[in-house]
Design a protein that fits this description.
Two copies of one chain form a homodimer. Chain A has 430 residues and is an alpha/beta fold. The first copy, chain A, has two domains: 129 residues, Enolase-like, domain 1 (2-Layer Sandwich), CATH 3.30.390.10; 252 residues, Enolase-like C-terminal domain (TIM Barrel). Chain A is 42% helix and 15% strand. Chain A is built from 17 helices and twelve strands. In chain A, strand 6, helix 11 and strand 7 form a beta-alpha-beta unit. Chain A is globular, with a radius of gyration of 20 Å. Chains A, B: It catalyses: L-fuconate = 2-dehydro-3-deoxy-L-fuconate + H2O.
């Protein structure tokens, strides 16, 4: 099977109209996809995307075109015979690399291509991605990972050891997964743009649906935030779990002061308290707010940054993003790093399509890497799933495993037409 | 004066033909500029650029177009009445920010615009940029800086203190600068693609021109590298200064081992020993190779990263890049951070146009921030200066101060036509 075409599309959903997704740093996002279809000589397609929040999505589309020559004409079996080399080929072009390296637009676009390749591979083998990964041997899994710049903390042999330790339990973990899925938390109730009473109404609705873990956006005025935090704690009671998300707005000392000022409401974590590049700042915050944990990752741009956050004790919950990282291969690297430091994988989702992606990564982690653990919480937002051919299934606050072959990335054809920017009907109608 | 047009151009020089600029990570760069001209209602233009190494330059051009609406129609006096807010406006658009934040293509493009704005301002005031900055009061200088996410290490007041301490000596520093410029080092002799005898020939030629500081690219086979290092040391004698540059190719333990294996040749620094994102790795290397220093910065993407490198003792020489950082405002922030930790500013140059830019920043540092110091070495490569309207003047291994108003960014009109990609004559002829 050979790749004969690489076709990116600019897909945008006008979510800023309702302030869905609003937070302290991102007041009005239009959730968007740089969507890629890989065509092959056998007719099977690979679908993948990267996620952005509106303006600038055209740059990721352009970057996919700039990278396309690295994927075009690839033989799929050959590409997956040496998966780390294939990954390095896509993210390591010596001239394009200057634009990152391994960060920003060029890495986001690389993720779309890498993810589409894995979707194609999973379809070719007739398995959902989580199952494909969970069936690989420890040797095959480490062959997917580029260990460059990781080896002071995790090298191939150490990663192999971790995977071999988990191997005997794989069958039992998979039965558990099929039986009851993996736990999720909801962000749908607590967007910053929602008035307090809307938050209360949504938390109550969530409790009725069986949710126990709720995330609230914070980062405006402290008093205002305290009131919102109190409202959620009041509604969910002492047994509910409350997470907070500041979306990068604080200075390091302000973050410490702020979190300690709401510690009486016992939040599980504070997410993105400051700049996502600030490893040392996060470590200082982690020290200053224990036992509240620091969660971060959605803007942590590559495995070298995760290595540092994890080793520094600056990340108690690893919120990897399936698009910010360079696709599946780098996500595997980060899952192994997190296992090395016994930090749970709690992937970033929401947006559009992110839940569809990350469920596969978290399920692979459950089956083949870190095993059963209740602190592996996958974010869930009840939004925009209806546009996907194989949408997530979340029941009783748990993600249930996808059965369909692929990486769940494919959009409905009608949605692709309607939300194409700027010519789709959803945008023409504005 | 109001900005009435923002016009980017894709300019590329086919430098890969001769392996000029070759190193361990970048074997065949085509030095390129995303070149921007700001037009105004008064006719004065602002010129600026960001630097890339070839493929992908089109993405920075596209990103300038995506950012243009943030600059178009700006009143120049108003923009410079609140320079930090203007900077934040350009790098902080809430949707475009997702593509970084403050890194990669979107930040490189922001730098082109910010630098063009400063070029325009300097022309409007009739001063070269170094002089414009050196004439600003401490208060005006800190007003240029966005202190967000820096304040655990350097806030506005602490920065003001540093600048005020340097203020009484400004006049004397400026006289020194006019008299004898600031010291430089040369990279022209030691590209990795050059055979050993070519390196020897070039070092000899450099010595005859008055150079005493030479940088050599390393990072291939240790034995091969040792031979090249020995050659340079042999030629420059015990009083010459030798720097090494590995361009990111090593793992942390390999870097330590390698540098210690050439320590007998007494290099001043090892540059980019590993991933440019790896603050903790650089700190570990710095500990393991003292008294050899670690130099890095050309791929360090924003002030938050510099804050960490400097505070961690992971950067003994601060090689800021005028384009990787978000232009002049963020360069001022980094110069202040370096001053805070008493680390010399040794900017990244070479490429095309980088020397023209960074001389202004280093001269500003000399006059108004860190004062006279012989360890402030500005990189120099004798290459492509002939395309600029106001090229650098380097004599006796020292940069002499530009006299012409602006930021020395303007290309000759004929060069702009000839190297326009892909339609210019230099590319059509291939």
């Amino acid at each position: 099977m050979r790749i004969t075409s690489v076709t990116p599309e600019d897909i945008r959903f006008p979510t800023s109209r309702n302030l869905d997704g609003s937070d302290a740093m991102n007041p009005a996002p239009d959730y968007s996809l740089t969507y890629v279809v890989l065509g092959t000589d056998e007719g099977t397609e690979g679908h993948g995307f990267t996620f952005t929040i509106g303006r600038g999505n055209e740059l990721c589309v352009a970057a996919v075109n700039s990278l396309a020559h690295l994927v075009l004409d690839l033989d799929v079996d050959e590409a997956f015979a040496e998966p780390a080399a294939t990954w390095r080929r896509i993210v390591g072009d010596s001239q394009l690399r200057w634009l990152g390296p391994e960060k920003g637009v060029i890495h986001l676009a690389g993720a779309a291509l890498v993810n589409a390749l894995w979707d194609l591979r999973a379809r070719q083998l007739g398995k959902p991605l989580w199952k494909l990964l969970s069936d690989l041997s420890p040797e095959q899994l480490v062959d997917c990972v580029d260990f460059r710049h990781l080896q002071d903390v995790l090298d191939r042999d150490a990663a192999l050891d971790l995977l071999r330790k988990a191997e005997p339990a794989r069958a039992e973990r998979e039965r558990e997964l099929q039986r009851s899925g993996i736990p999720a938390y909801t962000t749908s109730a607590g967007w910053l743009g929602y008035p307090e009473e809307e938050v209360r109404r949504r938390v109550r609705a969530g409790l009725e649906e069986g949710w126990r873990h709720f995330k609230l956006k914070v980062g405006r005025e402290l008093e205002d935030d305290r009131r919102r935090v109190a409202t959620v704690r009041e509604e969910i009671g002492p047994d509910g779990v409350l997470m907070l998300d500041a979306n990068q707005v604080w200075e390091v000392p302000v973050a410490i002061e702020w979190v300690n000022a709401v510690a009486d409401f016992s939040p599980l974590w504070i997410e993105e308290p400051t700049s996502p590049d600030d490893v040392r700042g996060h470590a200082r915050i982690a020290e200053g707010i224990a036992p509240v944990g620091v969660a971060t990752g959605e803007h942590v741009h590559n495995r070298v940054m995760f290595k540092q956050f994890l080793e520094a004790g600056a990340m108690a919950y690893c919120q990897l993003d399936a698009c910010r990282l360079g696709g599946v291969n780098e996500a595997i690297a980060v899952i192994l790093l997190a296992r090395r430091f016994d930090v749970p994988i709690c992937p970033h989702a929401g947006g559009v399509g992110l839940s569809e992606y990350v469920q596969h990564l978290a399920m692979f982690d459950h089956v083949a890497v870190s095993g059963a653990r209740d602190d592996r919480l996958v974010e869930y937002v009840d939004h925009l799933h209806e546009h996907f051919v194989d949408p997530v299934r979340v029941e009783g606050a748990r993600y249930l495993p996808p059965a369909r072959a692929g990486y769940s990335a494919e959009l409905d054809a009608a949605s692709r037409r309607a939300y194409r920017f700027p010519e789709g009907s959803a945008w023409r109608a504005r």
